[in-house]
Amino acid sequence: MLALADAQAEMTSMSPVSITVSDCINAGLLVRAASQRDGRRTVLHLTPAGTALRDRFRSQHRQAFEHITHDWPQAKRLEFARMLIDYADAAAELGTRITP
């Protein structure tokens, strides 16, 4: 869900994620809308409940990071955080290169 929430470009529902998307729609976390660029496509948007869940997840993730690394030197924490960001960015790019 975070990948959907943070996407800079339109994301559409693809076959491998259709069940998850449907579950999120049924749970009131996402809504489908017509693409403004191509009316034949459907795009996904977070609902207020989806935004709240994303924000709560991010907060819990941050709290866990701070708890786990609380006794690390600041330089080590920053290096690790940068590496996690690099990893997440690379993982997101990988997802766009995989075709079913």
Can you summarize this structure?
The chain has 100 residues and is mainly alpha-helical.
Blueprint (SSEs and pairs):
Blueprint: H1 2-6, H2 18-26, E1 30-34, E2 42-46, H3 48-68, H4 74-97
Antiparallel strand pairs: 1-2
Can you describe this structure?
There is one protein chain. Helices cover 59% and strands 10% of the residues. It has 4 helices and 2 strands; from the N terminus they run ααββαα. It has helices at 2-6, 18-26, 48-68, 74-97, and strands spanning 30-34, 42-46. The protein is mostly helical. It has a two-stranded antiparallel sheet.
What oligomeric state do the depicted chains represent? single chain
Helix count, per DSSP?
A: 4
Question: Which parts are unreliable, with pLDDT below 50 for 5 consecutive residues or more?
Answer: none
Rg for CA atoms: 17 Å
Largest sheet: 2 strands, antiparallel
Strand fraction equals: 5-15%
Mean pLDDT: 85
How far apart lie the N and C ends?
20 Å
Sheet with most strands: strand arrangement: 1-2
Tertiary shape: elongated
Class from helix and strand fractions = mainly alpha
Tally of strands: 2
